[in-house]
Structures are given as structure tokens and as C-alpha cells.
């Protein structure tokens, strides 16, 4: 319940609050009506004998410098009780935590149903991308970025899947590779013959770019003479014809072979 509808007025809500006796506890989610907007907090009536205080830092998921323009007088909102201490005349409330609980519930649903969803890029760092989903920050490690572009603009939409999450530690690890692979699975079918571009030459094999996705051509799957060095045989930018022999949708990995072509 984010806002009241037009037929449910301040008087209606106040009458309901006064009609019933409620027991409040820290950790409860309650309905309250905004009756005063101050510089550093919002005053809320939740039907207790004390005024509820909604601090500035508990209004939005992101830091705000003033009371959100989305908060209006006489508006009915759902709030989380951070502290209910009638002995010390204190009721501390939070909008942010209600939103956070709903977002984490959505995250669990997305993970369980294996859904691809859209995030917004906030910033880049050496390790990967920091993104945002419904006010919650997540991280895409470099190894799970489809195409690493240092000139990518902020607020760009990035489609991802969830790798791991922990609500208690506010941890959300995401993969663009897994989402891309699932969305374009017809380009990465097992047994398909395709062409890759050499991006990296290692002692154990080659990393190839195939349709913007990096995959491994292991040394055991390369046609070469027994004592022939990979660095002598291949250069970065070379085109290599390969077969797709492994696709892992859960980890966003693909592997190739040159044999039996």
C-alpha cells in the first residue's frame, strides 16, 4: 500500500486508527499517515499514542538531502518500525526498509524462476560494473561482462541473471554473460560450427570471441604438432574455425574444439 485512493480520506483513516487498539512491536510493518513534513524528518500517525518519526535517511533506498518530493501530507504509506519504545517516547519508522524487503522478495522470486531482468549501470571499476535494481546495488564481475567497454555510459540498461545473493549482507552478484547466452542460445548450440577471433593466447589454450562471448579452446582440442607452441601458431586477431562442444547456461561458459572438423 503505497498511497491512499481518492475515496479514502485522512478522516477515514484517522477514524479507523482510533476505533481499534493495536499492539506495536519493533520489526512490524504498519500503515501510517503523513501529517507533518519537517526539515530532517517526517511525522507519522500510526495509531499509537506517540508520534512516529521517519528520519531523512530512512526515506529512500539512495541517500537524499531533503524530504522526498514523493512524500505528501495526508498520504498513507507502509512503514517498518525500527524502534518502538513507548517508555522513552520513541517510535522510529522507515520507508526504505519496507522497499528493501519487497525488493529482496522480488530478488528471491527472480532467482527461483531463473528470470533475466534489467538493471541500470551506475559506475565502472577495475573489477566490473556496479548496477542498480529497484534501489538495490548489485555487482557484475569483469568475467561475467559480455563486452567490456570502458566508454560505456552510466544509466545504460544491462540485462542480467543472478549468480548469488545474500539478503543479510546486502550482497547481489550478477551475470550479463548468463543472460546473453540464454537470450541467444540459438547461436551457441552444441555441435554448431562457427568462427571465433583469438583474444588471448595462453599455455593451456586460446580464448576466442564468438558472437561477443568469450570461450575457451583448450589445448587438448587444438589441431597442432606435438611440440608446436600455441604462441607460434596463433596471433591475437586470428580467425579460427571451431565446433561448440560445451555450453553451461548456469555459469555462462562455452568451450570449443578444432578436432573432427
From TrEMBL:
<dbReference type="GO" id="GO:0003735">
    <property type="term" value="F:structural constituent of ribosome"/>
</dbReference>
<keyword id="KW-0150">Chloroplast</keyword>
<dbReference type="InterPro" id="IPR003029">
    <property type="entry name" value="S1_domain"/>
</dbReference>
<protein>
    <submittedName>
        <fullName>Ribosomal protein S1</fullName>
    </submittedName>
</protein>
<dbReference type="InterPro" id="IPR012340">
    <property type="entry name" value="NA-bd_OB-fold"/>
</dbReference>
<keyword id="KW-0689">Ribosomal protein</keyword>
<dbReference type="GO" id="GO:0003729">
    <property type="term" value="F:mRNA binding"/>
</dbReference>
<dbReference type="Pfam" id="PF00575">
    <property type="entry name" value="S1"/>
</dbReference>
<dbReference type="InterPro" id="IPR035104">
    <property type="entry name" value="Ribosomal_protein_S1-like"/>
</dbReference>
<comment type="similarity">
    <text>Belongs to the bacterial ribosomal protein bS1 family.</text>
</comment>
<dbReference type="GO" id="GO:0006412">
    <property type="term" value="P:translation"/>
</dbReference>
<keyword id="KW-0934">Plastid</keyword>
<feature type="domain" description="S1 motif">
    <location>
        <begin position="114"/>
        <end position="177"/>
    </location>
</feature>
<dbReference type="GO" id="GO:1990904">
    <property type="term" value="C:ribonucleoprotein complex"/>
</dbReference>
<feature type="domain" description="S1 motif">
    <location>
        <begin position="191"/>
        <end position="259"/>
    </location>
</feature>
<dbReference type="InterPro" id="IPR050437">
    <property type="entry name" value="Ribos_protein_bS1-like"/>
</dbReference>
<feature type="domain" description="S1 motif">
    <location>
        <begin position="27"/>
        <end position="96"/>
    </location>
</feature>
<keyword id="KW-0687">Ribonucleoprotein</keyword>
<dbReference type="GO" id="GO:0005840">
    <property type="term" value="C:ribosome"/>
</dbReference>
